[in-house]
Amino acid sequence: MSQPWPAAEFEARLRAVGERRYHHLHPFNQRMHAGQLSPNDMRLWIANRFYYQKNVPVKDGILLSKLPTREDRRLWLQRIIDQDGREGNEGGLELWVMMGEAAGLERDDLWSDRFLLPGVRFAVDAYVTFVRERPWLEGVAASLTELFAPGIHEARLEAFRRHYPWIRPEGYRYSESRLSQARRDVQHGLSLVLQHARTREDQERCVAALEFKCDVLWSLLDAVQLACEQRRAA
Ligand SMILES: O=C(O)c1cc(C(=O)O)c2c(n1)C(=O)C(=O)c1cc(C(=O)O)[nH]c1-2
């Protein structure tokens, strides 16, 4: 059996996954940031990404139920509150709906899944199923795409301001809120993974979980991109 990687090497291998296959590299994302998407393309992306958003607190509820300690559950609980909100602070899902409205969608367009593409549904459901069926350590490792998320939120905010002035500024609030939340979440997630993946086999399963999660995000954009192309060709 191989020796476990030292913590620094394990962390570097996790971070390298993002450099190779995080969705900032996806052609659809690159076109978004270059200002090349039409209002209808943007709306389709916002409506479909909402299905991911609304399933994040569902998967976090599943993961919460599997975490071994009270301290970790307390920290993880904050993720659900961040998305689902509470009275007086409606949370991330509401901010995402506000982005939809700022871009010309109706609130019900998002909640009803009216524009949800089959490929997006399959990709997101696969993430929730993965977290349900795999050990919690792999579920936490899958969430570590949040290591790379602040960069994409920053680039998206800049792209919105520069290229999509027709989206009203309330549309920025989701990404603004995630900048600090993602950094806090990932500190906890990364420390759990570094601490609990003790064998090389555990570590390799964590790297594979993160690759799987990158594939979920990649597939989501594949489906949206294809639908945009088909709509233009029709
Ligand atoms: O906009 C993005 O590109 C992006 C990516 C990701 C991600 O990398 O999974 C998340 C988010 N946003 C996000 O807003 C969010 O709340 C979130 C939670 C999680 C997760 O897996 O637990 N990922 C992400």
UniProtKB/TrEMBL annotation:
Domain Thiaminase-2/PQQC: 12-222
Catalyses which reaction(s): 6-(2-amino-2-carboxyethyl)-7,8-dioxo-1,2,3,4,7,8-hexahydroquinoline-2,4-dicarboxylate + 3 O2 = pyrroloquinoline quinone + 2 H2O2 + 2 H2O + H(+); thiamine + H2O = 5-(2-hydroxyethyl)-4-methylthiazole + 4-amino-5-hydroxymethyl-2-methylpyrimidine + H(+); 4-amino-5-aminomethyl-2-methylpyrimidine + H2O = 4-amino-5-hydroxymethyl-2-methylpyrimidine + NH4(+)
Residues spanning the signal sequence: none
Top-level EC class: oxidoreductase
EC identifiers of the protein: 1.3.3.11
Keyword NAD: no
Pfam families recorded: TENA_THI-4
Biological or metabolic pathway of the protein: Cofactor biosynthesis; thiamine diphosphate biosynthesis; Cofactor biosynthesis; pyrroloquinoline quinone biosynthesis
GO molecular function, one term: pyrroloquinoline-quinone synthase activity
UniProt keywords, alphabetically: Oxidoreductase, PQQ biosynthesis, Thiamine biosynthesis
Coiled-coil annotated spans: none
Subunit (UniProt): Homotetramer.
Function of the molecule: Ring cyclization and eight-electron oxidation of 3a-(2-amino-2-carboxyethyl)-4,5-dioxo-4,5,6,7,8,9-hexahydroquinoline-7,9-dicarboxylic-acid to PQQ.
Family annotation (HAMAP family): PQQ_syn_PqqC
UniProt protein name: Pyrroloquinoline-quinone synthase
Species name: Carboxydichorda subterranea
